[in-house]
Design brief:
860 residues; alpha+beta; Jelly Rolls; Alpha-Beta Plaits; 6-stranded mixed β-sheet; 38 strands
């Protein structure tokens, strides 16, 4: 029971949003005459192809020609806002768009820095014959210098920025990572059939999707292959098939993309099969027996879910604490000895790190198995199913039911996904799995906690030739060398899908655990001496459109590193080091020992601890007997409150200064880029759990919720500690706002709504505060679905705004028009120094109580 429970933030009032600064074009564009000279040959070819009497079939035989029912690619310098409606008016069925980065040339280059690459967009649309004719007509008008007809003005902007217009072809469909994956499979199993995924262009009409799928089936059948699975999810514009082809046919595609499937216009991408692979823990030598718990869950109905492998439900640490829903019958054939990952994750969520001796959760944990064991015991998602559909069905079955059955766990607010697609590292575009999570989070008001991913690749450490030289080096020099190696390799150590999800909280692994009496092997050492840094294996951000990812960090075990090779020195994370590091969990045992334990580590374990922390936050908020002021919060806001508080407790420590110094860049105008580099490594920081469960005498945390419409704002106000006015001493304000944004997969913005928070009156919240340097830059915190910043000061300040702190939360639409109110949760902390005589909590609490009493009297 907290001595000082979180306070209730008074409801907000409607106010005007802040005025947004006007942006300006940052790309130098060619003249209309130059554009005509560059692009007229392409449009002339189109004019010849669609002239009366031409044969559309002959046109489609040319893989590089723009033809009816073939996706057109518009490569654009910068972005063209609200192009979608005019594209539809011209008869183009808009399919998708994507971010792009272009090298500068004499026609297109950045204004301030002409030598740098600049941002762009790639728009993809499907035309019919009439649309091609209309496209040609609009180009003719533009290139002649005439004014565009009414309703087509955006085409003038697009043509002015158009770098290229072309057909979507085999080079776009068959991706380099697909070829690489096929080559690896052909080498390792040259006579075995190869499985991969085909992502189709999502067509609005069912008959078009059916026709496209029939064409895929016919081609696969002609190649001697099989379509194993198909899925279509309209909400995320996803249409895909899982295909198996003979090795010889795949070899033909590797040698020449311009054959068979590479030529099918209905195909958007051919990708490696998405498979989530479970990270294995390590059983302790001889087994370490643990006692069961006399206490059993006291509250009915789970609010947390685990999508993972099948756990050992009769383990003494899990018995009676799990609700397993297995409609697909995964338990059959899942030998107990192979039930590793699900058991470990369930144990961490229910009990925490067993070395920390924490009490178990008050509610049962809902478990939906989505992993199956392969021969040899490796756990992964089903090899004959599309992973996206597996997750979609699991969440739908939990929240609304499937196959006529009722919802299995309708009250779940938290979903743990300690899984990642090793074949889908984040490289810019949102993966279908991440898009699915974003949709489900918003649709069902649930918080997904997703592991950032474990990157086990080796890494070269500059400046050292041998392991001995590295081991004996000054610790500060070694810290810098490893950090520099991480930064130099950031492009191949990125998040694993679906960790780039916008609405989820992505969890990284902090270099930390509670293990005592470590048995460190002679050939391994810690990667660094600094506290607060991630494990070397924890995947790096940033996320989609430079969103701060990972969001938070939790304990992931104090992983070690060891030498992989020398000359130059190459190191790797130690995957297993018995008794050296890790979090202690329940584990399976083939001898029937129901008290077996194991040490596990990595981002999967950290994510399970984050889910447990979210559950503890929920329990605290709902504990009316314990003095909570939030037990009456409507259900649709509870996941948001948990999301806000988890991030609210995160912060960088002093190690961020070293990371910033090593990562750079150090130019005078590179502050934002420098902070982004630190954020890709530290996110918002390590979570201080105690900070989000209760207040202290020197810190008052207020928690509230509400909803705000686009182009509007809410103003929250509450009294500041009166004793702080005019005092020369430390004070700080931390603000966190969380929401689930609807997403628009067809729009370049993707995120439909953006919320921001800031002072509603005096710029320093009446406290003479300035933004703290050790945190993500101000632009970065506005990119995702959580806004988080901290401000501090020590100067004396005379209170204004009637002695209140005024917080304004504003909303804007960022991916097309949107007119619905957006639910949000907000946490705001006001604190003074720990040695201060000011009782910040009591003063704020008492002042709010007086106001509430006065308000009640006025209403009477």
């Amino acid at each position: 029971m907290p001595d000082r429970p979180l306070l209730r933030l008074p409801a907000g009032d409607d106010v005007d949003p802040p005025r947004r600064p006007n942006g300006r074009d940052s790309v130098e564009l060619p003249s209309r005459v130059r554009q005509g000279a560059r692009l007229t040959p392409k449009f002339a070819r189109l004019a010849q192809a669609i002239r009366p009497g031409s044969d559309p079939l002959q046109l489609r035989a040319d893989a590089e020609a723009i033809a009816p029912e073939r996706a057109i690619v518009f490569e654009v310098a910068g972005a063209v806002i609200d192009f979608y409606a005019e594209a539809a008016a011209a008869g183009l069925e808009f399919l998708a768009d994507d971010e792009a980065v272009y090298p500068p040339d004499e026609d297109f280059h950045a204004i301030r820095h002409p030598e740098r690459e600049f941002d762009g967009r790639v728009y993809m649309a499907m035309p019919n014959l009439r649309a091609l004719q209309e496209l040609l007509r609009l180009w003719t008008i533009y290139s002649s210098g005439a004014r565009m007809p009414n309703g087509f003005g955006m085409w003038s902007k697009l043509f002015a920025r158009l770098r290229d217009v072309r057909a979507w072809g085999p080079e776009d469909r068959v991706l380099p990572e697909t070829i690489e994956d096929w080559q690896e499979q052909l080498v390792s199993a040259p006579d075995s059939a190869v499985r991969f995924e085909i992502e189709l262009w999502y067509r609005e009409a069912l008959e078009q999707r059916t026709r496209a799928m029939n064409a895929i089936r016919a081609e696969v059948r002609a190649l001697g292959g099989t379509v194993l699975d198909e899925a279509s999810i309209a909400a995320i514009r996803y249409h895909a098939a899982l295909v198996e082809l003979p090795a010889g046919q795949v070899e033909a595609l590797v040698q020449n993309k311009h054959v068979s499937l590479g030529l099918l216009d209905d195909i958007m991408f051919v990708r490696p099969q998405s498979l989530a692979l479970a990270h294995e823990g390590e059983a302790l030598e001889g087994g370490l027996a643990v006692d069961g718990d006399a206490q059993r869950p006291v509250a009915a109905g789970p609010i947390a879910a685990l999508l993972d492998g099948f756990p050992v439900q009769n383990h003494v640490k899990l018995r009676g604490r799990l609700e397993i829903h297995d409609p697909d019958g995964y338990e059959q054939g899942y030998e107990v000895v192979h039930r590793k990952h699900g058991t470990e994750m369930a144990s961490l969520i229910v009990n925490g790190d067993l070395n920390a001796n924490e009490p178990p959760l008050s509610r049962p944990l809902y478990v939906r198995p989505v992993l199956r064991p392969l021969p040899g015991g490796l756990e992964r998602t089903p090899v004959d199913r599309l992973l996206v559909d597996v997750i979609y069905r699991a969440v739908r079955g939990m929240k609304v039911g499937e196959g006529g059955a009722p919802a299995a766990a309708p009250d779940v607010l938290l979903v743990n996904l300690s899984l990642g697609d090793q074949r889908r590292p984040f490289a810019g575009p949102m993966s279908p799995w991440a898009r699915l999570i974003d949709y489900l989070a918003y649709e069902h008001r649930i918080l997904f906690l997703v592991s950032a991913g474990n990157i086990t690749d080796t890494i070269e450490v500059p400046g050292y030739q041998t392991w001995t030289e590295f081991e004996q080096a000054n610790q500060e020099h070694r810290d810098r060398a490893v950090l520099l190696a991480v930064h130099s390799n950031k492009a191949r150590r990125t998040l694993l899908s679906p960790a780039e999800s916008l609405n989820a909280l992505t969890v990284g692994a902090a270099h930390d655990d509670n293990l005592q009496n470590r048995r460190v092997p002679l050939d391994a050492i810690p990667p660094w001496s600094c506290d607060g840094l991630p494990n070397l294996s924890s995947a790096l951000g940033l996320g989609h459109r430079l969103i701060v990812k990972p969001d938070i960090f939790m304990s992931g075990g104090k992983e070690l590193v060891r030498r992989r090779s020398t000359h130059p020195l190459v190191i790797e994370s130690v995957p297993k080091a018995q008794g050296a590091f890790g979090l202690l969990t329940a584990a399976p045992d083939n001898r029937g020992n129901a008290a077996q334990t194991a040490l596990t580590h990595g981002t999967s374990a950290a994510t399970a601890l984050a889910t447990r922390t979210g559950h503890l936050i929920h329990d605290t908020l709902m504990d009316v007997d314990g003095g909570s002021m939030h037990s009456d919060v409507p259900g649709e806001y509870r996941a948001l409150l948990i999301k806000a508080l988890l991030v609210h407790g995160a912060s960088w420590n002093n190690s961020s200064l070293l990371v910033e110094e090593v990562f750079g860049p150090h130019g005078q105008h590179d502050h934002n880029a420098r902070k982004d580099n630190v954020a890709r490594f530290l996110g918002y920081g390590r979570v201080d759990v105690a900070r989000v469960l209760e207040c202290t005498s020197n810190r008052a945390t207020l928690l509230g919720y509400g909803e705000v419409e686009p182009d509007n704002a809410k103003l929250h106000r509450f009294p500041l500690p009166a004793s702080l006015e005019g005092k020369l001493e430390f004070r700080a304000v931390t603000v966190t706002v969380a929401w689930f944004s609807p997403v628009n997969p067809r729009h370049q913005g993707y995120r439909v709504t953006a919320l921001e928070a800031g002072p509603g009156g005096e710029a320093g919240y009446s406290l003479a505060l300035e933004r703290v340097n050790a945190q993500p830059n101000y632009h970065a915190v506005k990119r995702g679905s959580v806004f988080h910043e901290r401000r501090e000061g020590e100067r004396a300040a005379a209170f204004v705004d009637d002695g209140d702190l005024l917080l304004r939360i504003s909303c804007r639409a960022t991916a097309g028009t949107y007119d619905q109110a957006v639910p949000y949760a907000v946490a705001i902390s006001v604190e003074v120094g720990v040695e201060s005589a000011i009782q910040a909590y009591e003063e704020v609490r008492d002042a709010i109580l007086v106001r509430n009493q006065l308000k009640q009297k006025q209403q009477v």
